[in-house]
Amino acid sequence: MRAIAISRPGGPEVLQVIERPAPQAGAGECLIAVEAYGINRPDVLQRKGAYPPPPGASDLPGLEVAGRIVAGDMQELAAAGFKPGDAVCALVSGGGYAEACVAPLAQCLPVPEGWRMAEAASLPETFFTVWSNVFGRAGLKSGETLLVHGGSSGIGVTAIQLAKAFGARVLVTVGNADKAAACLKLGADVAINYREQDFVAEAKAATGGRGVDVILDMVAGSYVERNVQCLADDGRAVIIAVQGGVDAKFDAGQVLRRRLTISGSTLRPRSLAFKAGVAKELRERVWPLLVDRKIAPVIFRELPAADAAAAHALMESGEHVGKIVLVW
Predict the structure, then answer these.
(1) Buried/exposed code over 129-166 (b: 16+ C-beta within 10 A; e: otherwise)
(2) This model's pTM is above 0.85
């Protein structure tokens, strides 16, 4: 099979097309003939040598794929309701940048009827992440207000649509007017340009001084202190990346007095059982919305599969709104 490997830690140019034997599916797994794969921020970190794959995972980057099942554990396939030839998208711990990829059956979901493979490949990483953090860890409920930092990112556009679909109000931070307009078009109620506006003041103004109930934060660093200021009493902030650094200070007295929760998680090293639980909830509660196109993919650009270096450069430019997907 063809695959895109990281030849050495470095810039996008270190991604190289190689030939290697296709992987073999083991117990509880299937082999997918990959037709499209998505690009995610952890792939960039892995390329730079800052985010090694977990033990047992492929050394190839790539956390989400879409394609057709070609082989696997036939008994488990049947138990999961799949068979060879079925179109699926899957969350994987690595190996997605290839023409064939092994995936745990418990992390496979059917491609929504009528969806292209490129659209399906844009789903797993962001939907698993948003669902498990915003709705699971933070417990966002209908009628509450969510603040999303990085509203135009792949995670952000997913968070906007899911939160609105389940009855929440959504505020986002973005870096320019075009990204603000894109988020508002997707359903965000308020878009805050963090380069020109103080997001703490704007969040307070948008909530009548009360503050927001939940924050999805990909920045951390200095944002943690400001998140505490943004939160309403009993508010919950979830950190899913540390693009602003790992050092943070905040008023712990505010956390105590107002019963705030600051937590965080990374998805890639979580157990199969945890991811299987998320997949089950997605299939039951979110996939019907996808089938009906009440939630739609937001793909900024589709590129040929071998152009992973160009895709990484595009992601690092920060120009994109939504997902970058590559197609074999």
Answers:
(1) bbbbbbbbbbebeeebbbbbbbbbbbbbbbbbbbbbeb
(2) yes
